[in-house]
Specification:
The complex is a heterodimer of chains A (452) and B (103). Chain A is mainly alpha-helical. In chain A, 76% of the residues lie in helices and 0% in strands. Chain A has 18 helices and no strands. The radius of gyration of chain A is 21 Å and the shape is globular. Chain B has 103 residues and is mostly helical. In chain B, 41% of the residues lie in helices and 10% in strands. In chain B, strands 1-2 form a two-stranded antiparallel sheet. A two-stranded antiparallel ribbon of chain B has the order 3-4. In chain B, helix 1 packs across helix 4. The chains are: A mainly alpha (452), B mainly alpha (103). Chains A and B meet through helix 2, helix 7, helix 9 and helix 13 of A and helix 1, strand 1, strand 2 and strand 4 of B.
Chain lengths: 452, 103
Amino acid sequence: MTATQPAVGLRFMRLGMLALAAGLLFGVIGGFQFLFPEFLRELLFTKTRPLHVSLVVSWIFLVAIGGIYFYLPRRNNLKLYSERFAIWHYWIFVVTGLTILGCYLSGRFGGREYFEFPPVLSIPIFLTWILFGVNYFMTVRQDRAPWPVYYWMWGTGIVFFFITFAEAHLWLIPFFRDSMVREIMVQWKSYGALTGSWNMLVYGTALYVATRIGGDDKPARSKLAFGLYFLGLFNLMFGWAHHTYLVPSETWIRTFAYAVSMTELFVFGKIIWDWRASLETWQKNRHCGAYRFLFAADIWVFVNLALALVISVPAFNLFTHGTHITVAHAMGSTIGINTMVLLASIFYVIREEVPEEIHAGCSRRVTVGFWTANVSLAVFFVALILAGIGKGVYAGGSFQEMMLQIRPFLLLFTISGVTLMLGIWIVLWNAYRLIGTVDEPAAEASAQPELA
Amino acid sequence: MSAEARYGQQVFQDYNCIACHQFYGLGGYMGPDLTNVMSNRGEAYTRAFIAAGTATMPNFNLTDDQIAGLLAYLEFVDRTGTYPAENYQVKWWGAVAQEDDPR
């Protein structure tokens, strides 16, 4: 192993933190544009929305990928199959990402929702996933012991990202594009499964960090953990149709999706819950940064589970679909669950790699950021639900009138969005600074073996 | 889909209209759902909005060809179904069958 290997993972993590910081800013600008359409008219909502979404999704992928690139060589003693692939992965990501941001800022679109950039830019993204996939599987195959579940989850996330990202481009083929219903079903099937694929990467990371903090690999090798994995895989493949309940389709598709939905989150929550109950106090204190972020993720799992169950019932979905309740669910998942898990991963790395900063994860500043972010997210979440209910029950025919009625909730959503951004910025500032102090050559020298 | 509607679909994507609007409730929430805008509001009303913009939606200074393409595309979308569903049946276990579902 060389010093470069763990360093590549840290580089991904730091880039991810910058992406989140910028993505939150564009989200706040978009929130103000919702209320005041004249606000920053040069930067239309058609630009701020894809900038916000792309940067925040990049944060999720970058930190999950960075964790894998870091943990395998650094803490699992598995030599990366190809450092060169990892470095190429990073730089292709940077160049493609900057090109996409440039396209958005200059108003050059051409793609579909969530991949609004000109479709030719998807080619380098495909390439990076080939590099990552080859590198990952060739690296973990060195581990001859039965794989813990997080290896399977990470591998599944990589394979299914590749499949679903390809599927999201089927609209380029006239057979799909020429039928609105077929095309919208395929598009949302791919998005639903793509979210499942990144959840595999994130949940794998959560289990990895949880087992490391607990000093016991059993939770990642238990029947329950593998049960979660297969349930997640089942959901990834078949649970997407709750996005398209209101698109004309065979009724059985809707009913089937209803039956499959959201069991995955329950099991995930149970595993983390069981793990926390078994932790000794000293382990909580030793990893208080990572622990508190996993704890927050756990709470958000249950909150999101409750909402997801309600909106997955087709009879309720009739009224919640196309309202801000869907946004509440998306924000609760990406910020409450994914972001909290990934921050836990970052603080785990800091705790292990920067021993002189024992209390960094629970410093006053990080504590202030943690609580500001979580309380703000709760207000943000409730404001979106109230706005969604307002939209869902509005019986008139005027869109503007409906928007006026829900304006107080949108105002609350925007204000809490600002404090949410500030809270996460405080956490990120401290994490970014500390990750930068990780001594890479020393990290190599003190590499630790895989848990028994 | 006609060639004009396909052109309109590309214009819709080139200006990222889905950032603010939806089809079948899928998309951004800053503007209204456009699934049935042609049958609910009519072509003249829709054309006027696209051509002139509003307090919320800027005037994108589209050419006549682009506006005609967008209208053809919206007409195409309009014929695919109804949103929100008007005639539906809720089963006792919470499932829903809609009038526009394939039989």
